[in-house]
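Re: that chain you flagged

S.,

Sorry for the slow reply, it's been a week of failed gels. I finally had a moment to sit down with the sequence you sent. For the record, here it is as I used it:
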Amino acid sequence: MKLLSIAIPSYNSQDYMAHAVESLLPGGDEVEILIVDDGSTDRTAEIADEYARKYPNIVRVIHKPNGGHGDAVMAGLRSASGLYFKVVDSDDWVDAEAYPKVLETLRAYVDEPIDMLISNYVYDKAGALHNFVMSYSHILPQGRVFGWADTHRFHKGQYLLMHSVIYRTRMLLNSGMTLPKHTFYVDDLYVYVPLKDVRRMLYLNVNFYHYFIGREDQSVQEQTMIRRIDQFIYVNKLMFTEVDLNAITDPHLYRYMLNFLEIITAISCVMLMKGGTPEHLRKRDELWRFIQQEKPEIHEKLRKRLLGRMIRFRTRAGRTAVLFAYKVSQRIYGFN
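Prediction finished late last night. Pasting the C-alpha cells below so you have them in one place:
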C-alpha cells in the first residue's frame, strides 16, 4: 500500500500540468500520482503517458471520457491505493519545503491513522504583490491529534477547502461523498460531506498547497461564476440535502458545518446580486424557498444571522452595501 495517493484531475492542461506533476515527484515511491485525463483534446493525455513511462512506480494515468472535475476526482479516488488521499488541481502545485514535512507526518500515522490532515494553503494570484496565506494556527491545536471539541471558532472566510485537507482514503470512500458529473464548484461538496465522519484530526502549520488564481477561464473568476451560477446553486443545494445536520450530535462540528453552509449560501446570493438582473434576483429568492422547504430549522437559523439578513435585502441601497462588504472581504482574503 502506498502512503499517499494524489489525484490530478486534468482537462486540456497541456500548458501547465507539468508544474503540478514535477512538484509531486519528490515524494518518491511512497506516493502514488494519479493523473486523470478527463477526455482532453490537447496533448494532456500524451504528457501524462510520458510521465507514467518515465516514473512507472510513481505515476499512473487514468484515461476517461469527459465528465468534469468532480467525475475526475471520483475516478482518482476509486483507483487510489494509498492510505491517504489528496487532490491537486492541474494548474496548482505543492511547496517543496512543506512536502517532506507532510509525508513525514503521515508516515507517523500509519498504524493508527488519522481521518484528516490539515495544512495551510497559499492564494497564488497572478499580478499580486503579496500572496495571501490561509492559516489555521489560531484555530486548531498543533502537535497532537485532536477532535472537534478542541477547535476554536473559524472566522468568516477562513474555512477548510479542498486545498487544505488530506483525507484518509477509506473514510472518504465510506462517507458516501459523490460528486456530480459536468458540474463546477464540487470542491465544496468534497470538503463538506465527509466531515460528519471525521473524528481524528491533525494540523500541520506549513504552507503546503499553492492555489493559482489568474487564468481567464478559471471557474472562480467572478464573471465565470455568474455565468455558471446555476451550477454553483446546484452544489449549494446538495450541501443541504447530502448531510443531515440535525443528525450531528457534536455541537462543535454542527456549528462549523452550519457556518460553512451560511458562507456558501452567501456566495450564491452575492453572485446573483452581482448579476443584478430580475432573473438573478428571482433565483436568489428561489434558493431561500428551497432551503425553507427542505430544511426549515436550518432556514430559520440562517435567516436570523447577519449574513442571512444582508443577502436578502431587496432595496438597491441594501444590495450595494452587501456588494461593498464582499469587495472588502475580497481584498482581505485575496480570493476570486
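What I noticed first: The chain has two domains: 2-213, 222-333.

Talk soon,
D.
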